[in-house]
Amino acid sequence: MDYRRIIPCLDVKGGRLVKGVNFVKLKDVGDPAENAAAYSAAGADELVFLDITATIENRKTLLDAVKRTVDKISVPLTVGGGINSCKAIEELMQIGVSKVSINTAAVKNPNLVKEATKEFGSGKITIAIDTSKNLNMPSGFEVMVKGGTVGAGIDAVQWAKKVEGLGAGAILPTSMDADGTQAGYDIPMTKAISSAVRLPVIASGGAGKLDHLYEAIVEGGADAVLVASIAHFGTFSIRQMKEYLRDRGIAVKL
């Protein structure tokens, strides 16, 4: 892809859009479908919908909330949260979801990545990797599962390389340490992963200023940037984000 993408992220709990800090202290920010419609109309390249408590609550993604969101947008939607089988992926594809994001289920059963990419194609399967700093890991970053509540004891960079080998189409690494802080993406973690794989990497967790988007792309090697707080709380419009990047020589789709 010859341009960098801006992707608003909708963290959804109980059918409502929420935003937290470091995966906790969640605030209600409204209706996911209404927010998605606004972002779609404002020029977002894609959207990500994460049912953030599905895995912890041991249930499937809330299909009705996803369907309402799909019906209101004209851009691709990636959905994650509680997806643990090809059947679950098929149900989402049937209601108009473009791609899925798999996290905990892939760690528990790496073969699911292979099966899913074989059945739906690599382009439909994104592997989300929640990371936390851990100096005992070779890269310094550990994979976290179950909504960031449990350390998997797996090195984040090694896991990214493994899922690339299993056929994944993109990697979405989120820094739990940076999430919601608005202090900037975890550039060392993003760069460690983007340098290790040939897949598109979507930077996630911590955007607070327009500079941060530029840093994630130029220093972190990201193909796309996920934004939440700076979009939900009206700090910057999608247009402002894109114009800022364009003015600094980054190709974007205006």
- Regions with pLDDT < 50 over 5+ consecutive residues? none
CATH class designation: Alpha Beta
Number of E-type strands = 12
- Helix-strand category: alpha/beta
Please state the overall shape, judged from the principal axes of the Cα atoms. globular
Mean pLDDT: 94
Please state roughly what percent of the residues sit in beta strands, choosing from under 5%, 5-15%, 15-25%, 25-35%, 35-45% or over 45%: 25-35%
CATH architecture: Alpha-Beta Barrel
Number of domains: 1
Number of helices: 10
CATH topology: TIM Barrel
The CATH homologous superfamily is called: Aldolase class I
Protein architecture, described:
Strand 1 and strand 2 (16-21) form a beta hairpin. The model has no long low-confidence stretch (mean pLDDT 94). This protein has one domain (5-247): Aldolase class I (TIM Barrel). Strands 1, 2, 3, 4, 5, 6, 7, 8, 9, 10, 11 and 12 form a 12-stranded mixed β-sheet that branches. It has 10 helices and 12 strands. It is α/β, with parallel strands linked by helices and 254 residues long. The radius of gyration is 16 Å and the shape is globular. The two termini are 15 Å apart.
